[in-house]
Amino acid sequence: MKIINLREYEKLEHIYQIWNAEYGNIFPISAELFNRNIENIYMKASYVAIDDEKLVGFVIGKVWHDLYEIKGYDEIGWISLIFVTPKYRKLGIGTELLNLSIDAMKEHGVKIINIGKDYNNFFPGLPVDLIKYQTWFQNRGFEFTYQTHDLISRNNKNKLKIVNSNYKFISANKLNKDEVINFIKTNWPGRWTKEAIDYYNNGGTGNEYLICLNDKNEICAFSKVCYPTTFIKHISNSHTWRARFDALGGIGPLGVAPAYRGNHLGYDIVAIAVNSLIDADVTEMIIDWTGLLDFYRKMGFEVWKSYSYLFKKIK
User: Which residues pair with 48 in a beta bridge?
Assistant: First the structure.
């Protein structure tokens, strides 16, 4: 058995194939999803374990090395995905893969390493479906803080009533992309802005961004949605596991500018997103990575998946 850096391994499709052999029924990784999510990996922190020319394990590590700066990201590393096939567990392979990835991130200057939460991530934390591995990470220096959730609404055909009648809600395909990006950058100048920039750079038309306009035609709120036909490079985390569904709709991220909060626009921008997805004949809707359970329950959403936040401080 040998462990080599990912750059030396050519059969990348085997990575998601061995994952899907065990977890493809709950977290199916397609070729398109895999290729999208590894575009920003850190090769020095990514390894594979080989035995008799067969892939038996891997780790995918990430650091922030994009030209777009996000505050604090230069000191964070991410274990995007780590896996060892059942036959090769409890032999120290997973520990060695993890340590090699962590050591590479240390050399890069990382001070905190998260399980999941990376840009274009598979998971925002350790899935509760894999909760038996939480102790494994904790025994290797990772700390648990709290959980976050993906929410789901199933077969919802009842449109939600809009509270505010003095605002206009439109698709951003009717606006210049700079208006949308500048609005998000002004109010959320980090990850959400980067996602919007990448969306347009990959050919997005604005169709997936729903916008709220005030009486001066100024943007005051937004919600990103994913339709069953949304191109893979235009999706958000709400659509990561769409292969499990017949016609999945996704909602998020979304936000209301500070000056307009307290007027139920948060409810309205979600309602517009829900209604838009109903018009698209989705079978289910997912809102990803949130702790606002009571807020979304009012709109018919319930917990679908939960994830544990785990992090390790680098000394």
Answer: 4, 58
The fraction of the chain above a pLDDT of 70, given in percent, is 100
The dihedrals phi and psi of 97, each to the nearest 5 degrees, come to: -60, -45
CB 273 within 8 A of CB 251: yes
pTM: 0.96
The CATH superfamily of 2-122 is Gcn5-related N-acetyltransferase (GNAT) (3.40.630.30)
262-305 pLDDT, tens digit per residue, is 999 999 999 999 999 999 999 999 999 999 999 999 999 999 99
- Give residue 216's identity as a one-letter amino acid code: K
At 47, list the tokens.
């390894």
Q: In the predicted model, what is the mean pLDDT of residues 153-170? A: 93
Domain ranges of the chain: 2-122, 153-306
pLDDT at 155: 85
Query: Are 2-122 and 153-306 equal in CATH topology?
Result: yes
Q: Which helix (H) or strand (E) holds 200?
A: helix 191-201
| Residues 235, 215: Cα–Cα separation, whole Å | 30
- pLDDT tens-place string over residues 70-99: 999 999 999 999 999 999 999 999 999 999
> DSSP assignment of 89-124, as one string?
TTSSHHHHHHHHHHHHHHHHT--EEEES--TT-S-S
In 10 A of CB 25, how many CB atoms?
Answer: 8
62 CB-side CA count, 13 A: 22
Taking the C-alpha atoms of residue 50 and residue 4, their distance in angstroms, rounded to an integer, is 8
Report domain 153-306's class.
alpha beta
Of 158, 133, 201, 191, which is closest to residue 301 (Cα–Cα)?
158
Cα separation of the two ends of the chain: 31
The per-residue DSSP string of 278-296 comes to HHTT-SEEEEEEE--HHHH
β-strands 76-84, 112-115: how paired? Answer: parallel
